[in-house]
Fold:
Amino acid sequence: MLKIKDLKASIFDNQILNGINLEVKPGEVHAIMGPNGSGKSTLASVLAGREEFEVNGGSAEFLGDDLLDLSPEERARKGLFLAFQYPVEIPGVSTTNFLKSAVNQVREYRGLEPMDAVSFLKHIRSKMELVEIDPSLLKRSLNEGFSGGEKKRNEIFQMAVLEPKLTILDETDSGLDIDALRIVSNGVNTLRTKDNAVIVVTHYQRLLDYIIPDFVHVLYEGRIVKSGTKELAYELEEKGYDWIKEELNTTAV
Amino acid sequence: MIQHSPDIDLIDLISQENQNVPGLLNGNLLSGIREEAYQKLKKSGLPNSKNEEYRYFQIARKLKRSYTFKLVEKVDLSYDISSKLVAEPEAIHIVYLNGVYSKDHSVHIPDNSISITELKDDSPSTNGNLELLEKKHQNINNDSYIDFNSAFLNTGTCITIKKNTISRSIYLYHFFTEDVKDHIINRKNIIVLETNSKVNISEIFFSDTKNHYFSNQVSEIFVNDDAKLEYCIIQELGDDAIHIQNTNIYQSSNSLTNTYTYSLKGAYVRNNLNILLNDEHCESHLYGLYYPVGKDLIDNHTTVDHRKANCYSNELYKGLIDDNSIAVFNGKIFVRPNAQKTNAFQSNKNLLLSDSATINTKPQLEIWADDVKCSHGATTGQIDEEQLFYLRSRGLDARTAKALLLHAFAFEIIDKIESQILRKFIGDKINSRLGYQFSD
Structure:
């Protein structure tokens, strides 16, 4: 589904990604872990299409198309979804209002009829229950006055409504307590099918107890330096990121 | 189209002793008022570049031309207003074409609690209203366009809402057609809300003619004790229209006014809104939205004058400025020495939508009392890129996402209106300008 080859990207003359290689197939969950500054959020941003980053090498293919050639909305319509680490507040725009527009623009792109108000409400009702989100929150301005947990649940709610093929969770666990973590993870897990895939970007192993990855990759200085199964996450938690740095230095020598 | 040739040079008119101008209102009381105003005008002249209040609204050169003061009496019955009226069946709709009342286009509902009369030479109602104006008028606004309006008055309307009335809505439509070419319309509206009355009054100014004209309106509005006024102004004017509107609102104790000014289009639009709180326990809310495009110039000057204690005023003006247009905002708040326990707040927010759009904004607070709560703030920015990216990352194309954000920005001012019908009327205009197609 997603093929990233030797991807390089920079921002303001700082080279952040130094050749990422990653392949994600339908049905898989990949975790990307790494110390601060390793490029985790940059990778997520570049895949989603943030224009501040300059891609200066490599390629990324999504469902057979050149991902880097597509605008952010085209990527979303093809089925890419980014759950933001810090979801922005938009006063005056309600979640339901903008989501309905988004759903219908995505449907139009896929050659489907738009949903009317009634069908849309039915569609989102079950999703609301899934992430245990209060319906009144959805009528309010997007993320305005929401707690950290509510913002993250709102991200997963939108994911549920939009039914993407590839979801990137950008440090979705940051700032969450155990309950919120449980709800968010449950939502993600329930939405998994054999046709979609998830990339979980996280600093800590804790989330991966709830969203169990098929593959774990360690990002360091803009490269994936180690890949493994979920056991790798436990090793990292035990030994810390310094262990990786030492291993690399040893190898280099 | 009626052919005429404008024959009176405006600047000459003011400087010379020539008052025999065809088309002006006359009458014993009126001529006294006109003469006094004329003398003041001769001394002051119209605002020039040295006048701070008109620094960014320079039309002196544009006014150096000939005008006609005689209004087009014959109303063009073929003018189609069907889509231009607000859909409120129980309201009174008064239509003026090029400054002249059109009975055929208007919708009148007989109502004893409201009096609506035209300013006419020497009629008792005219004189009654003029006497009231002289008695209650306070010098809260030294604008020489007011003197110009009085000196060369050619039309006006008086509205009185009788005491204790909860009135039906009143809509005054000012339509300007091709026939208004090179005309000056000096209109004076005198509006009185008697004790404990309530009314929604809206003035809708619309012209899509490319012809030049100068509309100079003065509204003197008296809101008596316990009365409540909702006053809405909507301006959508042509590419060579000059529109200056001085609105003076005098509030008495325990009264409430909510004013809404929507300036959506016009070559030169200048609003001077002045609120005098000369009694205790008054409340006043001023809301404005300006959205100039093309080469428009829209200038909003407001003044809230707190002269007595325990009053509350709150002002929020927002601007969307596009293309090469220019917007100006100056909000003055005066809190006089006796106005203790005043709460006065002001906020101005602007979004620049193009590289060549300009906003000049100046909050101005002058506070002489010491037990008050006052604040002001002005922001100018562009569309938030984070918000734009968030919406696009959900599948909305850039244009739709932008329309959604601008809609949210503008609708904070539209949502303040009490009347749902009026909210829809203005909301539809803004939405169509933004290309915003979603139903909420």
